[in-house]
Write a structure and sequence with these properties.
The chain is an alpha/beta fold and 317 residues long. It is built from ten helices and eight strands. The chain has two domains: 66 residues, no CATH class; 242 residues, Rossmann fold (3-Layer(aba) Sandwich). It is 42% helix and 15% strand. The chain starts with a helix and ends with a helix.
Length: 317
């Protein structure tokens, strides 16, 4: 009888471990393969939220951009890219980096700010997003940062080494560009909207929202590392900032309950070089521009102009 009881207990433990393992794998799959929006859906939503895009002359009737091309990512993964020409004589460029589950068109709303400052705009789809192969997994800034380096290199190759190049990210886009700073890219500024300092704290918020134990993020991270070759625990953009000298402007909605504003606050404090922090009262996740477009434009414009001045001083012009 005793042996039978022990056998049953062992079987129950094995079954529980199997369920736990399967649950961890399911959570990992859910995270790296999250639902993706199509370009058509994104443009439709953007035009509803920002109807002025229809009337903005450089974009009116030209939402598909001036040119469309493919850039190989860090491991050769094809990335869809689009270019939007600004003022003809300008040598200023900005690469706009989109968020998780979104695609390149979600960055259209920021373009008028930059085009009015004389910038040409480049947007692209993260691996596994937009028009790219949807089987590619999201690595929360890991492989994406290396892809961004390739986009930066391609932009210089196409338009010349003498261009003035900056970045603007949203959510995962910010985490990607901040992570990319560890590779010392040749950029002059970066606007960092609602990014995460480390992905684990964001996933814990998600666990809480699903009424699941927050500690499940750790076995899910382990499962992701085994299945997809990338875990979550080392996805810490904040670790790229201790030696950073690129001017950064952190923007965050004060009412963001997905990626808490404390993430931008932490990164702002961790930045070695020049950095600004701007919180937008009442703004939810990735909605700071929507909540106060006049202030948002002023914050970005003033920051970019300061970055231009700092670059001129550094270059001795």
């Amino acid at each position: 009888m005793k042996k039978r009881t022990i056998g049953r207990a062992a079987a129950a433990a094995a079954a529980a471990a199997g369920v736990f393992g399967a649950g961890s794998a399911a959570l990992a799959s859910f995270a790296v393969h999250g639902a993706r929006y199509s370009g058509e859906e994104t443009i439709k939503n953007d035009l509803q939220d920002y109807p002025s895009l229809r009337e903005y002359a450089p974009l009116a009737g030209n939402l598909q951009g001036t040119a469309r091309y493919i850039v190989p990512g860090a491991d050769g993964t094809p990335l869809h890219v689009q270019y939007y020409a600004g003022p003809a004589q300008s040598r200023r460029f900005v690469i706009l980096v989109h968020g998780y589950t979104m695609n390149r068109f979600s960055m259209l709303k920021y373009m008028p700010i930059y085009m009015d400052m004389g910038y040409h705009c480049v947007i692209y789809d993260h691996r596994g997003h937009g028009d790219n192969d949807r089987r590619e997994v999201c690595t929360f800034g890991g492989r994406e940062a290396k892809d961004l380096i390739k986009i930066i290199e391609d932009t210089y190759a196409r338009w010349g080494k003498d261009i003035f190049l900056g970045l603007h990210g949203e959510s995962l886009g910010t985490a990607t560009l901040v992570t990319a700073l560890r590779y010392k890219p040749d950029i002059r500024f970066a606007v960092c909207d609602c990014g995460f300092a480390d992905v684990i704290n964001v996933m814990k918020v998600g666990m809480k929202g699903m009424h699941l134990p927050q500690a499940l993020v750790y076995p899910a991270s382990a499962a992701s590392r085994v299945i997809y070759g990338e875990g979550f625990r080392n996805k810490r953009p904040i670790d790229s900032l201790s030696e950073n000298q690129v001017p950064l402007c952190f923007i965050h909605g004060a009412k963001d309950d997905f990626i808490k504003p404390s993430n931008s606050e932490r990164m702002w404090r961790a930045t070695q070089g020049y950095a600004e922090l701007h919180l937008f009262p009442g703004a939810a996740h990735a909605r700071s521009l929507f909540s106060d477009p006049v202030r948002y434009r002023r914050v970005v414009t003033d920051f970019v102009r300061r970055a231009q001045e700092m670059a001129e001083q550094k270059d001795g012009k």
